[in-house]
Amino acid sequence: RDSRGPVVSLRIAALLLAAPPHRRKFSILASDHIELDFCDSNASDQRWIVNDDQNLFIEDFNGANYCWDSASGSSSGSLIEIRTCSTSDSNQRFDYGTYSEIEIFTNSDRCLSATSTSTGNTLELQTCNGNMLRLWRLDTRTYLLHLRQDPRRCASLSSTSSGNVVNLRDCNDGDSLQRWEYNSDNELQSRDRSLCQQWNSESTGQEIRAYSCDGGQDQEWRFLNGGGSTDYMRYEVRGNSNRCLGVGSTSTNTQIELYDCDDDDRRLWALNSDDQLVLKANSNRCAPKDGNWLYC
Questions:
Q1: pTM for the structure as a whole
Q2: Residue 11's Cα: distance from chain center in Å?
């Protein structure tokens, strides 16, 4: 795990460990642009970390962090630069993945919901209306179920006992209580034990509790728009869900910029096991940091 704390949705290995010795140290020039290049699992300039605040960042040999930044704003065509990370810079926040309402099988107007983003908040059934407290993303790499309103909050068992409530906690992919899978019986099952999320009434406000998985209708759920798949994801600008990271071409040296969010494969990315951000339109194209690298 990253010593800076748990990451959201994407569990990243320690930076540069796999790089050959002559590439492990480098200097970064702030304000460089991000461009496409051939994917190289040994290239340290293609290794990215995603932190709790959903910054995409890289670290230089002095330990300084540099973040992706839509420096000219969120308008379509804005180029993506790499700049010194700032906790107050909203242009450095990117929400990723496909979020979905999760409805019960017997009533398409009842969805899994939080009532706030506070840790300890018990999940319940609410009217399906697209509210961000009703939108979820199941990360198939970490098995965390993230809340759209605050992706740092995840659904969690409150204990290992049957009958206890399901609530929100700070996302932690090392916590077995937070690991879920959507199984073949359409159940949201704990990854590490035979407990499933269950509702006992279709009434709004009905608490969600975890009981032994039994295949019953009161344990059946449906993702409405693919929120259970995270192989390739959009990276949206925080605060503008219609601006996504993308490229106009799959040619190397094409600069990454903001585009209207759509289903074009040039707007979809996957962070692979080598910590590279891979373009769906061409799986041999990755996002490195462009500029003058000074390898030691």
A1: 0.60
A2: 10
